[in-house]
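Throughout our pipeline, every protein is held as a single compact record rather than as scattered files. Such a record has a labelled line for the sequence and another for the backbone structure tokens. This encoding replaces a full spatial description with a residue-level series of whole-number codes. For reference, a complete record is included directly beneath this paragraph.
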Amino acid sequence: MCELMRNLATKLVAMGMASFLLASGCSGAADEAPAVLVPATGVVKLKGQPLSGVSVSFIPDYDTKGTGGFAATDSEGKFAVKHQSGKDGIEPGRYRIVLSRMMKSDGSPIPSGESAMDHGGVETIPLKYTSPTTTPLQPNCTDKSEPMILELQGK
């Protein structure tokens, strides 16, 4: 029952994030790249091992203007954030990084183009990283930012 509640909570958080991000991009301005974008790159690791297939969302925090950005990790756990316009980078400022990686309950990947819900998908990222209200990942991104190493703690 606890696992069922965790899966339901994860799905509700994911749906809430998608709604928030969709609404923040509905002004029409998201398709246009701002004058200044800074790179936001890095690697996601858990227990020292790179994680592939992780959805990485940068949500603007504090007084940061803009829509944030998104990325997915490659087979080496590396990511490079893109602005909603499709251009590389994000607006300078402070962000909350939210991560997600849904897998089948047996640990195998969800087939490309298919819904995690249709496969009984479970979140494999420690829950504190899956919500903008609990994530400890809060970088300040500038034109001088180095690639980030996001070493996740927990199970």
Q: What stands out?
A: The radius of gyration is 15 Å.
